[in-house]
Design a protein that fits this description.
Blueprint: H1 7-12, H2 23-30, H3 37-41, E1 47-50, E2 65-79, E3 85-92, E4 97-103, H4 108-111, E5 117-127, E6 130-134, E7 137-140, E8 148-151, H5 162-176, H6 190-195, H7 201-209, H8 214-246, H9 257-265, H10 272-285, E9 292-297, H11 303-316, E10 320-324, H12 328-341, E11 346-348, E12 356-358, E13 361-364, H13 370-382, E14 387-390, E15 404-410, H14 417-424, E16 434-439, H15 445-451, E17 456-460, E18 470-475, H16 490-505, E19 509-513, H17 528-537, E20 545-548, H18 554-565, E21 571-574, E22 587-593, H19 600-607, E23 617-622, H20 628-639, H21 643-654, H22 657-660, H23 679-695, H24 703-712, H25 715-722
Parallel strand pairs: 4-6, 9-16, 9-17, 10-14, 10-15, 13-14, 15-16, 18-23, 19-21, 19-22, 20-21, 22-23
Antiparallel strand pairs: 1-8, 2-3, 2-5, 3-4, 5-6, 5-7, 11-12
Length: 724
């Protein structure tokens, strides 16, 4: 074969083809998900030793930290008091000697044998006049002479070392790159390489593993990061364009009588953001290409009102609408709120004596009785229900609509692409409904491009008038009040309980959120059951306290929530079942116990349960974090109530792992790229993907690109995106 090597080919070639990779080494590499030559070449170094800038032992000042490239002179192990062991190793870099000490790590004697070269990192101290490091980080790198030495992720238990991986990578590159090899297919055109200042793929794979200097590493990383993000964006843009090309939707009437009446009846002015977003949605609805739009809005930004406007546009045009919520509590709340918004509005109905009838909004969930469910299913099929609100019950096989025009999905992170496509097929009209996906979890722009890249994005970044700011305070204390250490900050805890009682005296209500339902032997954190019992007999003994968590029966849950909404309960002790959608405007204090157990997005969601009325509200975070990240989360919540700002902080703190966990299967190709670090490249890759797909929708003129993308997609995705 004389053609250049493509990715699909590399994925088919086993690492066992390399010298020295037998069954045992193959098994060890498989533990690192390295099974093919492609896996090996994309098993990137985690750092580099730049020998032109490395520190010298003779120059080290006691108390300073450094990375040093050293050679082992000798290693000994001896017993010390208490039956423990001490391993000491003498190393040198040619300028001076350094002593390394390790406690209870006997295996170091086999690791640090005489003559072995290692990269060590740690703090240098003086002990009896000699420089030493205690328990430094050690990377074995073999006897390398290059100016820049790659250090690979490794594990002593695996039996693999950096020098092993370096040798195998070197052999793979020798056999694939010129002059001995065929080189790699480069799917990017010269124009794209030039526009984005990218090196060739041959150069990138060589330089990431065998760089002459650190500038080559930078160039290689830039190219390989672009490749990863570009492939991902290309798949998303192809999906978006394929849906637009193959599905036919209804061209809705966007200024019908219902939507006009709805806007005229509102007792308040729409925010500028709502006007803008409704305009974006109406533009989509007027086209026969089905809408696929993500609506991001911070807690309380008025997403439901925007969703109702979209659904009324469908009803105005003679179609039906559906709103799918993740929980029955939220679905029922939507039913109450939407019926209230649409009270008194009518639709044309020629079968009616008066030629019109009240707009009909019904709930379909697993809690609906069999008789009601049968009636609702029949009326949906006959088109007699205008707006259906429900949970996953809406995508059951027995559900069909006469003409489903608009679908709204609340809290997209609870649903996948599969559920969206099932809803799309529920209408017997043959038209694909317009899809509006809502989330109250703000997502950084670059992450949204990746997680929801097959959707257009609208953002509600303005709160309606009347929403009061929430004052957030952090009490540094154990939240397990029954334990002695809970007195870490008694004056702050006293202030918090004083505020709770004062707000209840003023006629307000309070949420207290716990991370667990029951007491845990493994975790010393507050449980809902224990906190409920404790507070009833101590701080809140004179108040009406209720309990809500996931194991309470549906009937008791309803009773508790109805009592809280009606003001019969002063305080609701709960788990995160109240996180999404629970709306009690009279609640003005949110207490979150063991707040460091929650992520930033979840804390922001919980905090958004208060501040929903006209009264000033407070959120108390009770937490004594044990990690810098926990401290940073608490500080961020105190400093800002802007969900989008907090989303960026969250991305910086946690990285993209949790966000990318929401992506659909077949797109997990980020080995080097980071949505956090490579924000600008995400945007570049997205724009480049749009250009390529819009000029070549089937990638017929980009054969290598299509072939490469196919090798990363699952079979169904490849069929849909590339054969459509």
């Amino acid at each position: 074969m004389t053609d250049a090597i493509n990715i699909a080919e590399l994925k088919e070639l086993s690492v066992s083809l390399l010298k020295g990779v037998g069954a045992k080494r193959s098994s060890a590499l498989a533990g690192f998900e390295v099974e093919s030559l492609f896996d090996l070449l994309t098993y990137y170094p985690r750092r580099y030793i730049d020998r032109t800038k490395e520190a010298k032992i003779s120059e080290m000042i006691p108390g300073s930290e450094a990375s040093l490239l050293v050679t082992v002179e000798k290693t000994d192990v001896r017993r010390i008091r208490g039956g423990k062991s001490l391993v000491t190793s003498t190393v040198t870099d040619g300028t001076a000697l350094l002593k390394l000490t390790f406690f209870n790590q006997n295996w170091r004697q086999k690791q640090l044998v005489e003559g072995r070269q290692a990269m060590i990192y740690g703090k240098v101290d003086l002990y009896r006049g000699q420089r030493q490091m205690t328990n430094p980080v050690v990377d074995l790198v073999g006897n390398r002479t290059g100016r820049v030495i790659p250090v690979y992720p490794q594990s002593e238990k695996s039996g693999l070392h950096t020098w092993d991986i370096t040798e195998w990578v070197a052999e793979a590159l020798r056999r694939t790159l010129p002059p001995k090899g065929r080189g790699f297919v480069d799917p990017l055109s010269d124009q794209i390489l030039s526009e984005h200042d990218l090196v060739s793929r041959d150069f990138a794979f060589r330089a990431i593993h065998q760089p002459e200097n650190m500038f080559e590493v930078t160039q290689a990383r830039k190219r390989l990061i672009f490749d990863e993000l570009f492939r991902m964006q290309l798949a998303l843009v192809l999906r978006k364009r394929a849906i637009e090309r193959t599905e036919v939707g209804a061209a809705h009437q966007i200024s019908g009588p219902l939507i006009k009446q709805f806007k005229a009846n509102l007792p308040f002015e729409l925010t500028g953001a709502q006007v803008k977003v409704i305009g974006e949605i109406e533009y989509d609805l007027a086209r026969s290409v089905p809408m696929h739009r993500l609506l991001q809005g911070d807690v309380g930004a008025g997403k439901t009102l925007v969703a109702v406007a979209a659904m009324l546009t469908a009803v105005d045009s003679g179609h039906q609408a559906a709103l799918m919520a993740p929980t029955e509590v939220l679905a029922e709340q939507h039913l109450v709120g939407i019926r209230k918004l649409l009270d008194g509005m009518t639709v044309t109905d020629d079968s009616s004596l008066f030629k019109d009838r009240p707009i009909k909004v019904e709930l379909l969930s697993n809690r609906v009785s069999t008789v009601d469910k049968k009636r609702i299913l029949s009326q949906l099929l006959l088109g007699e229900i205008d707006i259906a609100i429900g949970t996953h019950a809406l995508i059951q096989e027995s559900v069909s609509f006469d003409s489903l025009g608009v679908v709204v999905i609340d809290e997209q992170h609870r649903f996948g692409v599969e559920q969206r496509s099932i809803l799309r097929e529920k209408s017997r009209s043959g038209l694909s409904p317009d899809m509006l996906v809502m989330t109250a979890t703000p997502i950084p722009r670059t992450a949204a491009m990746t997680v929801y890249g097959d959707l257009d994005v609208s953002i509600l970044d303005e709160l309606p008038p009347g929403r009061t700011p929430i004052d957030t305070k952090w009490v540094r204390s154990s939240a397990n009040f029954t334990e002695p250490e809970a007195t870490a900050a008694p004056e702050e805890l006293d202030e918090m309980w004083d505020q709770v009682r004062a707000q209840v005296s003023a006629g307000r209500q309070v949420y207290i959120v716990c991370p667990l339902i029951d007491e845990s032997e493994k975790l010393s954190v507050a449980s809902a059951e224990e906190t409920y019992e404790y507070l009833q007999h101590t701080e809140l003994s004179e108040l009406q306290v209720g309990l809500l968590h996931g194991r309470i029966s549906p009937a008791d849950k309803d009773l508790t929530m109805d009592s809280f909404r009606a003001g019969k309960l002063d305080v609701l002790v709960a788990t995160t079942v109240i996180e999404v959608g629970v709306d009690v405007p009279n609640a003005t204090i949110m207490v979150i116990l063991d707040a460091d157990r929650f992520g930033i997005a979840q804390l922001h969601q919980l905090r958004g349960r208060v501040g929903r009325g006209s009264h000033r509200s407070q959120c108390w975070l009770v937490s004594d974090p044990t990690t810098p990240e926990g401290e940073a989360r608490m500080a961020a919540l105190v400093a800002s109530t802007d969900g989008f700002e907090l989303a960026e902080v969250d991305l910086d703190l946690r990285g993209e792992g949790t966000i990318l966990g929401e992506r659909q299967k077949g797109r997990n190709d980020l080995k080097l790229a980071s949505l956090r670090r490579d924000r600008n490249t995400v945007v570049e890759a997205r724009n480049c993907a749009i250009k390529v797909v819009d000029s070549d929708p089937g990638l017929e003129s980009n054969e290598h690109l299509a072939s490469e993308l196919e090798s990363f997609l699952e079979e169904g995705d490849a069929e849909f995106l590339l054969k459509n």
